[in-house]
Write a structure and sequence with these properties.
InterPro entries: CAS_fam (IPR037362), SH3-like_dom_sf (IPR036028), SH3_domain (IPR001452). Residues 1-58 form the SH3 domain. This is SH3 domain-containing protein. The protein is mostly beta strands. It has a single domain (2-57), classed as SH3 Domains (SH3 type barrels, Roll). Helices cover 0% and strands 45% of the residues. The protein has strands at 2-5, 24-30, 38-43, 46-51, 55-57. It has a five-stranded antiparallel β-sheet, with no helix packed on it. Strand 3 (38-43) and strand 4 (46-51) form a beta hairpin.
Length: 58
């Protein structure tokens, strides 16, 4: 699955992925490890958690 960022995201921890509005992310898992609202995504070579409310599936 792919998602597009609808907002910028400044990471607040090492586990969180930083991205800009318009970036396309590969969605690896939704509600990762039971974390409601957090998605595991990849952008390029980076993998990290993404707040699901900042992206939209495409």
């Amino acid at each position: 699955m792919l998602a597009v960022a609808i907002y910028n995201n400044q990471s607040e921890s090492e586990e969180e992925l930083q991205f800009k509005k318009g970036d396309v992310l590969a969605v690896l898992d939704i509600n990762f490890n039971g974390l409601n609202g957090w998605w595991l995504c990849r952008r390029g070579e980076e993998i990290g958690l993404v707040p699901g409310n900042r992206v939209e599936l495409i």
